[in-house]
Amino acid sequence: DVCDLIIKCPLLYKTSESLCHVCCPQLYATANNYHLLHSLALLGAAQCRKPLLAGGLLTAGMGLFCGALYHQAVTGDPRLRKLAPIGGTLLIAGWAAIAL
To answer: Where would you find the membrane-spanning parts of this chain (predicted)?
Structure first.
């Protein structure tokens, strides 16, 4: 459970009260996993041929994809979920920019 993890971590304890009202913990966990994975990919983006392009695509993709999922998970409001496919496409483009 997201609340159990937050309460166990002393650094996040102060915000645990507001985050324990997550409407959909599974959606929050999915956003968190994608956010972590693509944050690590940003480290590799610095070593590719076009780091600014790859980093920009990954950052924009994380913001749109993970941001839409975080927003829906915390608020229960699905209005931003239409941004998730755009963010996913940007993430794929970011991975392609790293590979090429």
So the answer is: 52-71
Return the closest-CA partner of residue 81 out of 97, 64, 96, 94: 64
- Where residue 76 falls (left for φ over 0; alpha for ψ -120 to 50; beta otherwise) is left
Question: What 8-state DSSP symbol labels residue 21?
Answer: T
Residue 30 near residue 65, CB atoms below 8 Å: no
Half-sphere exposure of 8 (CA within 13 A, CB side): 5
Residue type, 33: N
Model pTM?
Answer: 0.75
Distance CA 17, CA 36 (A): 23
E strand residue ranges, the chain: none
The residue type at 96? A
Q: Confidence band (pLDDT; 50, 70, 90) for 27?
A: confident
Contacts of 85 (CB under 8 A, 6+ apart): none
